[in-house]
Automatic annotation (TrEMBL):
One of its GO terms (molecular function) is iron ion binding. Its cofactor is L-ascorbate; Fe cation. The lineage of its organism: Eukaryota, Metazoa, Chordata, Craniata, Vertebrata. Gene3D superfamilies: q2cbj1_9rhob like domain, Tetratricopeptide repeat domain. GO terms for biological process: collagen metabolic process. Residues 1-25 form the signal peptide. This is procollagen-proline 3-dioxygenase.
């Protein structure tokens, strides 16, 4: 790809120039800088990649800090008072809005240029810029900075096997030191907490105390900032904005409901490490548990009592901590009070915290030097000391809050008829080292493969199925796709042979029947999504490549390698039950399909694509899979996902069925086809 900017990008630069002429301050929008960096990457201009991408990260951080600062400042300046009235309420709201507009534009310039698409926001949340930076710094022979970028990306993407391998290679490079492996996006409260636990485990209680106290300060600060960011524009899921005609108070109610939901998630977000799906259980109370015992170890019992009482605010009546409070009070000769900040925070956010404290009754682990409990089960008060945590901070998913899928579907039968005489069984589940897996050959012929590949070249579009993102999984490949309905539409319009469009429809039905029969399913298998896809290696981007064409994942749950779990919850397509990939060619390098263990690292089976070969499997956490890098040529396939729930049948497939039925009855020639592109999923 060349480095020329599209007309839309040029127009945007012109508009920005106009905006600048009337703005007292200006910060370059991070989405524009990000786009420039990506364009530079595809042009192999790695110096510009670094310049633009570092600028984008800086701009992103500045926008966030400015919004937090301005919202908190204006919130303090324009507060709601005791005498509540409609007029007073709207007066404060309008004054806050004007205050924030003035404050933000003073630092950033016109706010409209900083409105960024949700896709770009998600890329920054997932730390995608650091993947580009790692590659660019590597090309520029700056391994120390490449190591930092790789480490930062890997913290939020621990399932990215190739990045983990890159990090191991960086460790062996001359000039790369251990302190180069830093997380550039580390959250201060989590960084201090982790460092404090290490010191605690080493018995350095004085140093641990300082870091735990710092972690608490940073936690409460981060909580305030998170809630301030929730005050921005909200997304109203399920509403058609152009037809949104509710009353003023309904609009305000909807907005505040979204805002409260966002604030509610702050508690979970602050306790969740980057790249993890679940929060660290008992996270905030655990600070006070560590502190009470650390203060005891350095003979500061007043502080120990205060922290123990603070812990009990979150876990009222917990036996081990109640015993500690009794001990501290007895030695000191007086009772104490919990920390004011902890009490205030719990009053404000009790319900949110309670949702994260499920199962935390097991968190307090008693250390009993001497005979805390006598051999007869009675308490030996003459030789007791307080109990404390054992340094446990292992990642523990809250299984009570989530539906976990770690096993194959209940129907584990396989080996049914293959329906078509030409189809040959190559490997079953046992040979593929897993469950509910099958590899078949000769599902379609060489002629059918060639026709479908020719069809793919005519109908597929870059980024189809991924909101137009040309390289959704790796910057080193171009992804193109097309649906069944779109292909039939092209056929009706005469842009491709209708025979070829019909072939795509027919062979996907052939694949569905084979999967349904082989796995001996007792109910009908419905289409969930059907996609004709091609992945093309980008010339000039393949040197020293270690990433995957498609990262390791499961099809109906969120794979969490560290917890060895797969969370069956949105945004995963939880209704998908079986998956299949029907390959159209094998004349490319790389691109092997792989199954792994749930650690996303241990490969259990590898499949080399070729014309007519199909791999089928159940869609859950029992079958993590991915695609190795396509390093040369183009890899094409028909990707199919199926569901046993008719409520989640593919809408486009139902419309395609109607088109085929019309064709078969010849009624189409008199009426024309009703294919609405807006109905596409």
């Amino acid at each position: 790809m060349d480095g020329n900017f599209p007309p839309a990008a040029i127009l945007r630069v012109v508009l920005l120039t106009v905006v600048l002429s009337s703005s007292t301050a200006f910060l370059e929008p991070y989405d524009l800088l990000y786009d420039n960096a990506v364009q530079a990457f595809y042009s192999s201009d790695y110096g510009d990649v670094v310049r633009y991408m570092e600028g984008a990260l800086s701009s992103y951080g500045e926008v966030r800090r400015t919004k937090v600062r301005c919202r908190l400042r204006c919130q303090d300046q324009h507060q709601f008072d005791e005498t509540f009235s409609d007029l007073r309420f709207f007066d404060v709201v309008l004054r806050r809005a004007a205050c924030m507009d003035e404050c933000i534009e003073e630092k950033l310039g016109t706010q409209s240029v900083h409105k960024v698409s949700q896709d770009v926001v998600q890329d920054f949340h997932r730390r995608i810029p650091y993947n580009y930076l790692q590659l660019a710094y590597q090309k520029l022979k700056q391994p120390d900075k490449a190591a930092a970028a790789a480490h930062t990306y890997f913290q939020a993407n621990p399932e990215h096997v190739e990045m983990g391998q890159n990090l191991e290679q960086y460790k062996d490079l001359q000039g790369v030191e251990e302190d180069h492996f830093v997380d550039r996006e580390a959250r201060p409260h989590q960084h201090s907490f982790t460092a404090a636990v290490r010191l605690y485990d080493k018995g350095d209680y004085e140093s641990a105390i300082a870091l735990f106290e710092d972690a608490l300060l940073e936690y409460y600060k981060a909580d305030v900032e998170c809630r301030a960011l929730c005050q921005g524009p909200q997304r109203f899921e399920g509403h058609d904005h152009l037809r949104y005609r509710y009353s003023l108070h309904e609009l305000i109610s909807d907005h505040f409901t979204q805002m409260l939901h966002c604030e509610h998630e702050c508690v979970r977000d602050l306790a969740t490490r980057p790249g993890r799906l679940s929060p660290m259980e008992n996270y905030l109370p655990l600070h006070y548990d560590y502190l009470q015992f650390a203060y005891f170890q350095v003979d500061r019992l007043e502080e120990a009592l205060q922290c123990a009482l603070s812990y009990l605010l979150f876990h009222e009546g917990e036996e081990f901590m109640t015993d500690n409070v009794d001990y501290y009070s007895e030695v000191l000769g007086h009772n104490g009070e919990p920390r004011e900040k902890a009490a205030w925070y719990l009053r404000r956010h009790k319900q949110e915290l309670e949702l994260l404290l499920i199962g935390s009754k097991t968190m307090g682990v008693e250390f009993t030097e001497g005979n805390y409990w006598s051999s007869t089960g009675g308490r030996d008060d003459s030789n007791r000391i307080p109990s404390g945590t054992d340094g446990w901070m292992e990642y523990v998913p809250i299984s009570e809050k989530r539906n976990v899928t770690v096993a194959a579907p209940q129907q584990l039968n396989e080996g049914g008829p293959l329906v078509y005489e030409s189809v040959q069984l190559v490997q079953n589940s046992a040979a593929l080292n897993g469950t509910q897996r099958v590899l078949l050959d000769h599902v379609i012929s060489e002629e059918e493969c060639a026709e479908l590949r020719h069809l793919a070249h005519a109908v597929t579009m870059a980024g189809d199925g991924y909101r137009g993102r040309m390289s959704p999984h790796t910057p080193n490949e171009k992804f193109e796709g097309a649906t069944v309905l779109k292909t039939l539409q092209y056929g009706y319009e005469g842009r491709v042979p209708m025979r070829s469009a019909r072939l795509f429809y027919d062979i996907s039905e052939r694949a569905r029947r084979i999967i349904e029969s082989y796995f001996l399913l007792n109910s009908t298998l419905h289409f969930s999504y059907t996609h004709l896809v091609c992945r093309t290696a980008i010339t000039g981007q393949q040197d020293h490549r270690n990433d995957l064409s498609h990262p390791i994942h499961a099809d109906n749950c969120l794979l969490d390698p560290e917890a060895n779990e797969c969370w069956k919850e949105p945004p995963a397509y939880t209704y998908r039950d079986y998956s299949a990939l029907l390959y159209l060619n094998g004349d490319f390098e790389g691109g092997e399909f792989i199954f792994t263990e749930m650690d996303a690292k241990t490969v259990t089976a590898s499949v080399k694509p070729r014309c007519g070969r199909m791999v089928g499997f159940s869609s859950g956490g029992e079958n993590p899979h991915g695609v190795k890098a396509v390093t040369s040529g183009q890899r094409c396939a028909v990707a199919l996902w199926f569901t046993l729930d008719p409520l989640f049948r593919e809408l486009e497939r139902l419309q395609a069925d109607e088109v085929i039925q019309a064709l078969d009855t010849q009624s189409v020639w008199g009426q024309g086809l009703s294919i609405n592109p807006k109905d596409e999923l």
